[in-house]
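batch_manifest entry 22 of 60
target: 2,3-bisphosphoglycerate-dependent phosphoglycerate mutase
source organism: Pseudoxanthobacter soli DSM 19599
requested by: lab member K.T.
priority: normal
notes from requester: please return tokens only, no post-processing; we will run our own comparison against the previous entry in this batch. if the run fails, retry once and flag.
--- input ---
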Amino acid sequence: MDHLLVLVRHGQSEWNLKNLFTGWKDPDLTEKGVAEARAAGVKLKALGIRFDVAFTSALSRAQKTCALILEEIGQPELPVIEDQALNERDYGDLTGLNKDDARERWGEEQVHIWRRSFDVPPPGGESLKGTAERVLPYFRAHILPRVERGDRVLVAAHGNSLRALVMELEGLSGEEILKRELATGAPIIYRLDASGAVIDKKDLAA
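--- output ---
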């Protein structure tokens, strides 16, 4: 039986384009982001991949990416489960700030620590560790069981919520996952065995 899990980071958003910390705010996709999402669907369709269920966050940039992918592969009516457990990392007081402005306010070193340490949260926000503590229980309770029983599952979410899933699937440390960049609109295809262990991985950004 084919145990298939496909992760896709949403296409470029308006705030990605403006170099702003986005977090739980809800900007739309740019034209480029729409094109990236459609291209992801085209790539998956070319591989003959179809899904039994999709999961996405409570944020529209991920929901729209999910819908565009499903439209391209000819499954626009597929059940989609939305949950804020899959939302992007909450950047707290950094949310909405230009990354250059944040560096001017708090200093380059401090902003780098907030962005690139595993367990140091920005003021009022989440660390990547905190994000994982929100994402992974949901993954283990709701997504992984579907994969293990043989459903082909799509997860359209965000850079940091997906980092948490990649860390879990690939057995990476906090330091290792921080170095992993996830391209927008680039599917990562995992094939798992019945126990949830990864057999094979294909990154369509490569």
